[in-house]
Amino acid sequence: MDVARFMEAVKELAIEEKHNLVEELLDILLSSVNLEMVPDDVGWRINQAYRGGKLTEEEILRELAYAVSIAEPAKFRRIIEKLKVED
Amino acid sequence: MTVFSVEIVPKDPLWKIDLLTYIIGELGFSGVWLSEHPHNRSSFITASSLLNKASRVWVGLGVINPYTINPFVIAQLAASLTEVAPNRIKIAIGAGDKTTLESIGIERIKPLEKIREAVTIIRQLLTKKKIAIDRIHGRLDFNPRSSVPIYIGAQGPKMLQLGGEIGDGVLVNYSNPEDLEWAYNEVKKGIEKAGRKIENVDIAAYLTISLDEEPEKAVKTATPYAAYILCGLPEKIMEKIGVSEEKLIKVKEAIQKGDWLRLYDFMDVDIVKKLVIVGQPRILEEKLREIIDIGYSQIVIGAPIGPRILRTLREIKKTIDEAKRNLYI
After folding, report:
1. Which residues of A touch B (CB under 8 A)?
2. A63 - beta bridge partners?
3. Which of B13, B308, B311 sits opposite A43 (nearest CB)?
4. Which of A27, B12, B139, B298 has fewest C-beta within 10 Å?
């Protein structure tokens, strides 16, 4: 549910804002101590997308948001609050 | 010229370690040191996977412990890795910390002799493909595709001297410039004893770093790492830090039980600051200058690096580039 709200809010962002957001999400994910909770196939798709410069593409961004939402739910909620997402 | 590398602890999934290695290469660091610990993923298996894809960086495995992995097997694994990535493998050998070894049922007997013997076996197998010393006889039935520099991971004075005497490099596990200067001079004694030239030994400061704009977050991230370091310190440094025997026992117990929350009760901020480069990112430049002035030829940006790893790595690289411009290193 949170991921769907997040994706809705991201549509409104300018390209630069989107890039900054992706960088922040990636930093939270790579800094997490809960990565055993993230499915390996999701992790590898994020890995490949970074290498290919495709992290801002919708499907990958959804996976990145999903990974952060399960590894760091509190931080993910704060990001959503920052985006001022409404229910 | 000073070489800069980064430590990665293989406690996280391979997809993350692989991505972090890619980013480290992208940022322009020369190499990655994969730490080895029985609780984490195998550094050899991890290295094999990384080296297949990462072409920009070398990978060091260290510190490999000959009490947990037989030196013959270390040589076999290192030689196998040269086929994956010739000239991009380094290994570091060390006696490890007593607490961890005891917790997995291994007695750490005569560490200096153990390391000297392990290095002899590994080096002979990697260079001559056979070994025959005392009770040990054996061979490799395949050719290592390149040489593999052997570093010694060291903290105590005798191990530091041994590193200078027999190592292609030495990983010096301190972060405080004062301790690093003392350790450098111990390595030099070993180099002089063996009649070697200092420029032929890569002396690396293996720093433990935790940086963040909010220093208290940096301290929190650094605390478990500082606790591990504390448990392995030689007497001389332990005395200087002023940790009571009672406190040390409590820290060791918490580590053995993996009770990280209790560690925060015993590990004062002052102790953490003596063992780790911790604080805001701007403190790093001055520390780097001091460490380079001592003579270290490699600086390892060691874990945890900071509570926000990506942002901190990018800041550290900027600081290094700035230092390189100012110091012409």
Report:
1. 23, 26-31, 35-36, 38, 40, 43-44, 46-47, 50-51
2. none
3. B13
4. B139
User: What confidence score (pLDDT) does residue B105 get?
Assistant: 92
Decide if B204 is inside a domain. Answer: yes
DSSP string, B19-36: HHHHHHHHHT--EEEEP-
- The size of the A-B interface in CB pairs under 8 A is 42
Q: Is B307–A23 a contact, with Cβ atoms under 8 angstroms apart?
A: no
The interface residues of chain B toward chain A in range 11-40, judged by CB-CB distance below 8 A, are 12-16, 18-20, 22-23
* Cis, peptide link before residue B66, omega less than 30° from 0: no
Type of residue numbered B99: T
Q: What's the number of domains chain B is made of? A: 1
Return all residues near A20 (Cβ < 8 A) that are at least 6 apart: none
Going by their DSSP bridges, the two strands B130-133 and B136-139 should be labelled as antiparallel
Q: For helices B14-27 and B309-327, what crossing angle results, to 10°?
A: 30
Residue B269 lies in a domain: no
In a domain, B54, yes or no: yes
Q: How far is B220 from chain A (nearest CA, A)?
A: 13
Cβ atoms of residues A64 and A3 within 8 Å: no
Structure-block tokens of residue A15: 């390209």
Q: Does residue B290 form part of some domain?
A: yes
Separation CA B230–CA B240 (nearest Å):
12
pTM for the predicted model, two decimal places: 0.93
Residue with token string 């997995």: B104
CATH of residue B18's domain is 3.20.20.30
Tell me how far apart the alpha carbons of residues B300 and B292 are, in angstroms, rounded to a whole number: 12
Residues of chain B in contact with residue A30, where contact means CB-CB under 8 angstroms, are 16, 19-20, 309-310
Per-domain residue ranges of chain A: 3-83
Least CB–CB distance from B308: residue in A27, A47, A50: A27
As for the ipTM of the complex, it is: 0.95
Minimal CA separation from A30 to chain B, in Å: 7
B83-132 pLDDT, tens digit each: 999 999 999 999 988 878 888 899 999 999 999 999 999 999 999 998 88
Q: Whole domain around residue B34: which residue ranges?
A: 3-214+279-325
